[in-house]
Structure formats: C-alpha cells, structure tokens
Amino acid sequence: MNRKLLGAALLAMATLLFNPAWASDAPAVDRTATGGAQTLEDIMARQQQLKMDESFRSENLGNPANAKPITEQLGTRGGVSDSDVWRGIRYNQSDIKTQARGPGADVLIQDGGMPWYKLREGPMITYGGGALLGIILLLVVFYFVRGKIMIDGGPSGTKIERFKAIERFGHWLLAGSFIALALTGLITLMGRSFLIPVIGHEAYSTLAVGSKWLHNNVAWAFMLGLVMTFVMWVAHNIPNKLDWQWIKAGGGIFTKSHPSSKKFNAGQKIIFWTVMLLGVSVSLSGLSLLFPFEMPMFAGTFSVINSVIGTDFPTALTPHEEMQYANIWHSIVAFAMMVAIIAHIYIGSVGMEGAFDAMGNGQVDREWARQHHDLWVEEVEAKQGKGGSS
Amino acid sequence: MKVMAAAFVVALVIAFCAPVVLNQFGWSSAEQGSSTSVRLD
Fold first, then answer.
1. In this structure, are residues A284 and A297 in contact, taking their beta carbons and an 8 Å threshold?
2. Per the CB < 8 Å rule, is B11 touching A165?
3. Which listed site, A14, A76, A291, B6, has its alpha carbon 20 to 30 Å from A176?
4. How many whole angstroms separate alpha carbon A57 and alpha carbon A175?
C-alpha cells in the first residue's frame, strides 16, 4: 500500500480514537419498567461514553396535573418531586430567583464544568505541549540534516533596504507581545502541573498573578501589531501563480535552487495568513475571556456552522459554557500559532544566513535578496533607477 | 535593533495604559486580580 495513504489512514484513525465527538449512538432503551426513569442500560451506556439522548431526563421535570390533594402525603409538592426539582436545576430549566446579579447567577449547576476542566488539564496540556516539543525536535533534526541555509557564493557586501522602520516596528510589536502572551499563557495553563511542584505554591501564586496581568494587558499591543502588519503587508501577500512555482520547488530548501519571488515568497505568505487568521480568532476568543459573559460568540457560531455543513453542535449554551468554549478555542488556536511561529523564528534566525537582518536593521545583503526575492530586487532597482525609493 | 527595542517598550507602555483607559469606560476585568473584594453584583 502507498505509504502516504497508510499514514493518512493511521492519522485519521488516531483522531477518531481520541475524539469522543465521534462516539457512536447508544441503542434505544425500553424504560417502561422504571416508569420512564433511567435504567441500568442508560448508566452502562453513559459509562461507555456512548452518545445519549438525555431528553428523557431533561424533560422529566414533574407535572402539576399529577399533584396529590393537599390533604395527602407530599400533597404540598405540587406534582414536582425532589428529583424533578434537581433535574430542572441541572438542565437549567428551573425559574431561579436569586439576589446575586450577573449573566451566570441563575445557573446553579453547570454540567459542562468538569469535562472542560478535564480537557484543559489533560489533552490540552498533553497535545499542546507535545506539539511544541514536536516542532522544536523537528527543527533540530532539520538543522542537522539540512544545515544553515547559506548565501550561495557568500554575501556581496552591499546592502539593500528590505523593511522600513515602521514595518519593523509593527513586526516587533506583534512579535514581542506574542512571545509575552505565549509564555504567560503557558504559565497559566501548565503552571499548576509543572511549576508548583518545582517552585512551590507561594512563588507560583505571584508568578500566576503577574502572568495574568501581563497576558490581559499586553493583548492590546498584539492586536495593534496585528492590524499594523495586516495594513502594511496585505497587498504583498495576495497569492499568485508564482507561489505555486515556489511551492513546487519546495522553496529551494532541499534542491538548493532559488525559485523566483517578489517581496514575500509563498512560505512567508503562508505564515502571514496563518498569523492573520489565527490572530483574529485568538483575539476574538481572548476578548470574550477578557470581558466575561459580555461577548458570547460560540452559540451563534455553532448555529451558522450547523446550518452550513449540517453538524449538530449545541446552540443553547449557558454563559459558563460560552466561556469554557472560548477558553478551549483560545488555547487550541494559540498552540497552532506557537507551532507556526517557532518555525518562523527558526528560519528567520539560526536557519538562514542573512535573514535576521531584514527585521534586525532593515538592511539585507543584496546577494541574499537576489537569491530569495529576485523579482522584488528588480522592482527596487527599477524604482531606484527612476529616482524612487523601495 | 533600536526599532525592535522601541516596539517592546511600546508594548509594555500599552500594557500599563490599558487598564487605566479601560477603567475610564467602567471596564475593569483586567484589574480583577488586584481586587480586594469579590463583587457579586
């Protein structure tokens, strides 16, 4: 069998194995013996993590028409038993009156809390951390296999302006704030598991409060950097036919050829759009977390997704569930960004001779520019010939 | 490198200014960590 096909099949099977969303439906259960209440089969199906229709419980909230006369035992319950009351509270169907104000105040039991906590403390740390270690390991292997990408024939010694000061400012505003957000986010997510055993509760408490403050507030610099870089570079990052040629040549990474490119090659465009799309997504979920309960967006998003591709995502979410989805999505997108950015940092620093200068002082070696962005150099030289600037 | 350092400083300045500006609009979620009491309303 084709190896690639086998690999894809194994990946798909592994995904299905770890994803409870693909769990099969539980078989229909006859509940006549329990008068509609749950049976041993229901409990067993739940333990097997089968997908269950819970409506037999969530809709079983008592009926005033069944109320006993006031003179009989339990007559004052009005047709609603203790179990009915607790089911109503659990499924958020009761009319709760509380002096506490706030969007989540009348949700007394929130079923999704434990699955969210387990997902955050378990798979999120395991797979997210694994992805970060995986990309670092991959880059180390790549470095030893391919080595540093050098300028063929060595640097020319003459310089050409690659990025203006305002472009570098926008890039570093985005990059600096992203690194701060990534580190403080990892401390917040993983600190309880990895830092408390090492530095203790008190030291971690100080670190966690500081991380939270920095994470919440430096997010605005990240969003500003995102807008600045988008405005400055979007015109240079529109995909074109040249990108396909660049991709087919693998960017010249292994063939040591130099496929033609304008200001940004296809690899850089992929990074640009990855950062922009994921950056907007992580910002939106971050804003939702920054202003709790004020910006619920998952019920609406799920509704749109369901209507477009016919999925069955829940659209009636409690305020807490909105926050839990925002938190999980925020982490997933952030990990994806971190993986992409680690690769970007590698190729922009130790991975390629002369690349860091582009963002370091803005001046790159002309030979480096010719080898990696030949069409852009031609454009700049043509403009300079006419007395213009880059 | 000066531009890089300037951008990092500006990111920190924005971080310090953000809670002050947000407070002007009555949005103090970023300040919850330093709150001395829990507000239920």
1. yes
2. no
3. A291
4. 50
Q: Which of A343, A362, A350 lies closest to A274 in space, CA to CA?
A: A343
What tokens were used for A77? 């319950």
CA distance A372 to A388: 22
Residue in chain A lying closest to B1 (CA): A360
> DSSP readout, A233-270?
HGGGG---HHHHHHHHTGGGTTT------SSS-HHHHH
Query: Which CATH architecture describes the domain A119-385?
Result: Up-down Bundle (1.20)
What count of CB pairs under 8 Å joins A to B?
71
Tokens 């300028």, residue?
A151
Give A332 to chain B, closest Cα distance, Å: 22
**How far is it, in rounded angstroms, from Cα A289 to Cα B25?**
18
Over residues B1-41, the pLDDT tens digits come to 899 999 999 999 999 999 899 888 877 654 444 444 555 55
Note the ipTM here. 0.79
CA distance A347 to A351: 4
Task: Answer yes or no: do A102 and B18 touch at CB < 8 A.
Answer: no
Q: Do B1 and A291 touch (CB under 8 A)?
A: no
Reported residue count of chain A is: 390
Q: Do B4 and A221 touch (CB under 8 A)?
A: no
According to CATH, where is 1.20.950.20 located in chain A?
119-385
Using the Cβ of A213 and the Cβ atoms of chain B, whether some distance falls under 8 Å is answered with: yes
Angle between helix axes B2-24 and A165-194 (nearest 10 degrees) is: 70
Name which of A105, A180, A292 is nearest B29 (Cβ-Cβ): A292
Residues B40, A362: C-beta atoms closer than 8 Å: no
DSSP, collapsed to helix, strand or coil, labels residue A51 as: strand
Looking at the complex, report in whole angstroms how far the Cα of residue A316 sits from the nearest Cα belonging to chain B.
24
**pLDDT tens for residues A229-273?**
999 999 999 999 999 999 988 888 877 678 888 999 999 999 999
CA-CA-CA-CA torsion sign (A272, A275, A277, A280) = negative
Q: Which residues on chain B are in Cβ contact (under 8 Å) with A206?
A: none
- The pTM for the full model equals 0.83
Backbone angles phi and psi of A332, in degrees to 5: -60, -50
Q: What phi, psi does A144 have (nearest 5°)?
A: -75, -25
